Amino acid sequence: MVIGLCREARRAGRELGLASTDAKNQALRRAAARLRERCPALLSANRRDVENGRAAGLSSALLDRLTLDEARVKAMATGLEQIAQLPDPVGETIAMWRRPNGLEIGQVRIPLGVVGVIYESRPNVTADAAGLCLKAGNAVVLKGGSEALASNQAIAEAIAVAVDEAGLPPAAVQLLPTSDRAAVQVLLRQDEYIDVIVPRGGPSLIRAITESSSIPVIQHYAGICHTYVDRHADLAMAERICLNAKVQRPGVCNAMETMLVHQAVAERFLPSVIARLRAAGVEIRGCERTRAIVPDVKPATEEDWRTEYLDLILSVKVVASMTDAVEFIGTYGTGHSDAIVTDHYDRARRFLRQVDSAAVYVNASTRFTDGYEFGFGAEVGISTNRLHARGPMGLRELTTYKYVIYGSGQVRE
Which of 193, 200, 275, 317 could form a disulfide with 119 if both were Cys (CB 3.0 to 4.6 A apart)? Predict the structure, then answer.
């Protein structure tokens, strides 16, 4: 079954790669309309998944990711419409140059081909990944987690119907309709049909996929995101940013997991911000210097600095200098998203230069590392790789390129 779906996706991908921008946009707009029309059915399917997940003991963070409501369904539909409004990257000339022998060489964007997306919990990934792959001319094979099977099937079916209505091959959007884990192992061996795998989930899932796959994998192991409050920070601004980065949605990969505070402002900043975080339900785990300022904070261990909590838990460390903060992020960070709060221009520029993460912020919450917030319409994933993409993966990150060469009879001597 898996091999058959992948083979169909390859055939559909060849056709989709040649489709016009108008046809792809029509499919996206029809898909948005279908999601809105089928909202009651989608929510009904999702309720079954949530009830099963709750009975299976899923954590509150995973249940939050799994749950759909009317607003989230509308957001999925809006995301597809926004993708339709974005420029089509396929066919874009990246560069063009002329050689001394008269050859004109161009570098032109083309689709990757067939993208496999393996993900957990979040049904919205089904719509986001399908929409982005469609606009970038890629067929997509989706394998969601068993906890969201009914939700994913309902969303994928609505999108495939819309693709067919637009005159494009419905096999361009494939969802593996099974909760059998063996299906993933089969999928990961289909390098004849699948060009790249994008996993979305916890570190154990991504590590297992990377170790098993014969197909290139774009990885995102963990989001241990830091916010560093500098000695020159506007402390009221820092408090707002840190509260948002931790509390607004703690179960996602761009939420802050460790807060670093310069020793020069720690005594003024920590009591107030910790009180506000605790009022929002956050458990604080701090270094010895943090506990000297707020004594009832739970001691942080070495393991805390290396943990992506995805929950209302925050590690706090007081640092002696900005150099210490940058070194700490380099040691314990995962290259996802890190921020500095400072009013000092030179220190902001230094942080941007020295912190080697996919997204580095000055005076803003790490929660903005998201394809929608970056203006991509949606994202197929967030890469902490260096190859082939980094950060939120939008349309351009779902393309590669080829060279086109114009000659006038040249032969190589």
Answer: 200
